[in-house]
Amino acid sequence: MTYYFRTEALTVGYDGKALIEDINIGIEKGTILTLIGPNGAGKSTILKSIARQLSPIAGTAYIDKEDLMHMSPKEVSKTMALVLTKKLSAEMMTCRDVVATGRYPYTGHFGLLSDEDENKVTEAMELVNVLEIEGQDFNKISDGQRQRVMLARALCQEPDIIILDEPTSFLDIKYKLEFMSVLQKLKKMKGLTVIMSLHELDLARKLSDKILCVGDRAIDKFGSPDQVFTEGYISKLFNISDELIAFAKEKNIL
Fold first, then answer.
1. CA distance 215 to 15
2. Given a cut of 80, is residue 110 above it in pLDDT?
3. What average pLDDT does the chain have?
4. For the stretch 145-165, what's the b/e string if a residue is b when 16 or more beta carbons lie within 10 angstroms of its beta carbon?
5. pLDDT band for position 213 (50/70/90)?
6. Which of helix, strand or coil describes residue 208?
7. DSSP β-ladder status, 17-23 and 5-14
8. Average of per-residue pLDDT across 117-126
9. pLDDT above 70 (res 117)
């Protein structure tokens, strides 16, 4: 099968020291791929390496047969967008100002937006339901609104792939559900491919097409939610007792 996105013997880490070796996965366009695993296992390192914030130690990743490591920064920006949990420093910027910065791969040296760019900003804000707050101070909106504004900013890049590192961190259940419904809508409307990490196993199970399980310095399993969420596996991956798993299921946590 020809995959839209795939990795080939990808090894990631820091300062030349491998953290996770030999990552080999492939997904089709319009797939939601979620990374799960214990804290510190290397999920963020994988995402940052795919997004070229970190240089892989070995191997590579391909987008539609193009070697990601050989693409120019501008080409990458037009193909892939990254949304991190780290808060953006946006002093004296409105929500629309923040979203408009996503057009930087398409503007000239002076960063002036054309009418087409302005239309793309409006379209992105409409898609994630934040157009009504476009004039508000970005630093004075709620965490849930801020996360959607950052998603709109990423959409302004017109990417085929969006990478999100723990996008629901610090959000209450209402904003988590709203954010995830937006991702599903974008997948259906635009064929967007989503690669993200999540702590919430219930959301990962319901939302994802594929799940990558990151264990102790290794990829432990890769497959559909039904293939991953099997009897006893999650307790093994996270090193938690069967009794705690049973309690989580009883309380609808898992």
1. 21
2. no
3. 89
4. bbbbbbbbbbbbbbbbbbbbb
5. very high
6. coil
7. antiparallel
8. 93
9. yes
Query: How is residue 5 written in tokens?
Result: 């996105």
Q: Please choose, from the candidates 80, 73, 70, 51, the residue with its C-alpha nearest in 3D space to the C-alpha of residue 157.
A: 80
Q: What is the pLDDT of residue 74?
A: 86
**Do 37 and 215 form a contact (C-beta atoms < 8 A)?**
yes
Fold of 5-87+159-250: Rossmann fold (3.40.50)
Residue 151 vs residues 37, 157, 180, 188: alpha-carbon distances, Å: 24, 10, 11, 16
Q: Partners of 14 in the beta sheet?
A: 17
- Return the residue matching tokens 């760019």: 117
Segment (H or E) for 225: helix 225-228
Query: How crowded is residue 106: how many other Cβ atoms within 10 Å of its Cβ?
Result: 17
Please calculate the CA angle 224-230-233 and round it to the nearest 5 degrees: 105
pLDDT above 80 for 90? no
Decide: 94 and 134 in contact? Cβ < 8 Å. yes
The identity of residue 54, as a single letter, is L
State the Cα–Cα distance between residues 35 and 211, nearest whole angstrom.
Answer: 6
Q: Do 17 and 192 contact (CB within 8 A), yes or no?
A: no
